[in-house]
Each structure stands twice: as C-alpha cells, then as structure tokens.
Amino acid sequence: EVGAAGAQALFTETRELGRQVGSVREIAASLNNLAAVADQHGSHAEAEELLRECLAIHRRLGEPWGEVFALCNLAEVACEQAAYAQATALVEEGLAIARRWGSLSATAYTVGMLGYISYSRSDYTEAARRWGEGLALRREQGDRYSIAFCLLRLAIIAREQTHYSSALALYHESLTLYASLAVTKGAVECLE
C-alpha cells in the first residue's frame, strides 16, 4: 500500500511528466490528486491553492465537468473548515455551470454536494431536500449506484430526525441496491 508520502511523490511526478509532455489535462488531474492528499493531512490552504490552479486549467480548456468537479472539491475543503457560506457559493457556481452545460450527471452531483454541506452544518431539512432532489435526478439518469448512495444519505437523515420507520425503509432500499451491485462498502454502511 502506498502511504501519503508515496502518493504525494507519485502525483508530483505525474504532474511533472504532464508538464514535460505538455499534457495540461494530466497536470490538472495531478493537481486535483495532490490537493486530496494535502486536504487529508489538514493542509487546507495548500489543497485550496492546488484546486484553484486545477480550476484555472479547466476554465482555460473550456471543460465544464472539470470546472464543476474542481469547484465542488474546493467547496469540500471549505466545508471541512466550517466555511459553509463559501462552500455553498462554490457549489452553486458549479451547479450553474452544470445546468448551462445541460449535464444531468453534473447537476445531480452538485445538488448532492449542497446536501452534504447542509448535513455538515446540521440543517437536516435542507440536506434531505437536496438529496431528495439528487435522488430524483439519479433515478432519471438510471445510475443505480448513485441512487443507492442518495437513499443511504436520506436514511441517515431520517434516523437523525428519529423517523425510524422511514429510515428503515430507506436503508432497506439502499441495501438492496448495493447488494445487487455487489458494492460491499455501501451494503456494510447500511447495516451499521
């Protein structure tokens, strides 16, 4: 298993190789991965700087999915620091891009991120609304894995709000989907 130092070295090398061969997309991917490593180790400022550079690359290339993804990753870093207003503004910017672009997948992803932010600040009503909206989009898309994920998030909220019968039904539906997809981690989370 590669530890954090090994992962950082690998992603740094990948970024440098991308620079040598002129692969801007590879550089952006490496910046995103380096930001994840930095964020996991509490280096939020470094993660934010790397993600802003990644976002700038995607904007220069005119890649809406990359923009949306970078904005949502920036929002996650902000959310971890309890900067919820900043996180929300970043995701709403990503949501506007996703809607202009017409991507159902990116729209569902950003709506789910708004649910995550709401849940993080203990606004369970808004989190349920957002994940419910995300669930509807994922059902429209037919993405069974993401449907199971949304159902699990809604189950957790129902449990937090002591709506145990709703929580049980949502857990069961999520577990059934995860099991049919052979996704052990999701199934285990449903049973915890």
What would the keywords be for this entry?
single chain, 192 residues, mainly alpha, 10 helices, 86% helix, globular
Structure described in brief:
It is built from ten helices and no strands. It is mostly helical.
Write the layout of secondary structure elements.
Elements: H1 4-21, H2 24-40, H3 44-61, H4 64-80, H5 84-101, H6 104-120, H7 124-141, H8 144-160, H9 164-180, H10 184-191
Helix pairs in contact: 1-2, 2-3, 3-4, 4-5, 4-6, 5-6, 6-7, 7-8, 8-9, 9-10
Q: Could you report the average pLDDT, rounded to the nearest whole number?
A: 89
Order of helices and strands: HHHHHHHHHH
**Secondary-structure content class:** mainly alpha
Largest sheet: none
Q: Cα-atom Rg, whole angstroms?
A: 18 Å
Q: Return residue spans where pLDDT drops below 50 for at least 5 consecutive residues.
A: none
Strand content: under 5%
**Which term fits the overall shape?**
globular
Count, helices = 10
Distance between the termini: 26 Å
Beta-strand segment tally: 0
Helix content: over 70%
Q: Your description of this structure?
A:
It is a single chain. Helix 1 runs antiparallel to helix 2 and helix 9 runs antiparallel to helix 10. The longest helix has 18 residues, at 4-21. With 192 residues, the chain is mainly α. The mean pLDDT is 89. The relative contact order is 0.07. The chain starts with a helix and ends with a helix. Helices cover 86% and strands 0% of the residues.
